[in-house]
Write a structure and sequence with these properties.
single chain; 115 residues; mainly alpha; 2 helices
């Protein structure tokens, strides 16, 4: 099935030393490689956790900012509706209509005088 690694305590299989001298030597430091792989995996997990924590903080901050902005927008829309209603009330008043009529008459009189 799977080839087992040779540790320093296991002897290498006998092969012809003449074919390849590296194959004749036992595999060394596999325990060290396993330790290094484990240490690297733990470091990778730490980095991934740090990224998750950072992204969560950013997401939380942006969510708060979005809620505040949405609240400010709703307040501005409400103020706008109040001001628009007030403007409509002013434009509908008799005083405004009279002033508008007076301004039109005054503008017409100025244009006649300037001819």
């Amino acid at each position: 099935m799977a080839d087992h690694k040779k540790t320093p305590t296991e002897p290498a299989e006998p092969t012809s030393a003449a074919s390849d001298p590296l194959e004749a030597q036992p595999v060394k430091n596999t325990a060290d490689l396993d330790d290094i792989s484990l240490a690297q995996a733990l470091l990778d997990v730490d980095v991934a956790n740090a990224r998750v924590i950072d992204l969560t903080k950013r997401l939380t901050t942006l969510t708060k900012e979005l809620r505040q902005t949405t609240s400010d927008l709703q307040k501005a829309k409400l103020r706008n509706r109040k001001i628009a209603a007030e403007l409509d009330q002013i434009k509908g008043s008799r005083a405004f209509r009279s002033a508008s009529a007076a301004q039109r008459v005054l503008g017409a009189a100025r244009s006649r005088l300037s001819r």
